[in-house]
Design a protein that fits this description.
alpha+beta, 5-stranded mixed sheet, 17% strand, globular, binds FE2/S2 (inorganic) cluster
Length: 161
């Protein structure tokens, strides 16, 4: 029996995208496999590692735990959507480079999404608030301190703008 498809319309990184998806297709698989937005990574696939984090209406969510149909009518921001309009890196992305906030880079898209969501709501976060915001994202390489430093650096840079 063929699987029923559902029509969805999602604003992805500021662009309206329409599609037809099976009910059980995860949001991360739709983003990566249909839209080729492969910046969003897949790690554990059960909500633990945070590598698949994207923003849904400005809030970080785990896209491996959501179905694509649940994003219908919502705004999704992936790591590709964090770059500036001319394609150059955002202040936060640049601060990650500057502070050595990444090594292998596997966790980085999720870390950037969690950190950007924090800075959007809390432009001058304390170290405790940064640690809390990235607390659901696992990194096997950095020891976390360089990531915390990167978010702090980005907050300072944004203040000066
Ligand atoms: S892949 Fe989604 S939380 Fe790990
Ligand atoms: S930089 Fe390798 S997992 Fe975080």
């Amino acid at each position: 029996m063929s699987e029923t498809l559902h029509a969805i319309e999602v604003q992805v990184n500021g662009r309206k995208v329409s599609g037809t998806v099976p009910a059980r297709l995860s949001l991360v698989d739709w983003l990566r496999e249909e839209l080729r937005l492969t910046g969003t990574h897949v790690g554990c696939e059960h909500g633990i590692c945070g590598a698949c984090s994207v923003m849904l209406d400005g809030e970080p969510v785990r896209s491996c735990l959501m179905y694509a149909v649940q994003a219908n009518g919502h705004r999704v921001t992936t790591v590709e959507g964090l770059a500036q309009a001319d394609g150059s890196m955002s202040v936060l992305q640049d601060s990650f480079c500057e502070s050595h906030g990444l090594q292998c880079g596997y966790c980085t898209p999720g870390m950037l999404i969690a950190s950007q969501a924090l800075l959007d709501s809390t432009p001058d976060p304390s170290e405790a608030q940064i640690r809390d915001a990235i607390g659901g994202n696992l990194c096997r390489c950095t020891g976390y301190q360089p990531i915390v430093d990167a978010v702090r650096l980005a907050a300072d840079r944004m203040k000066q703008k």
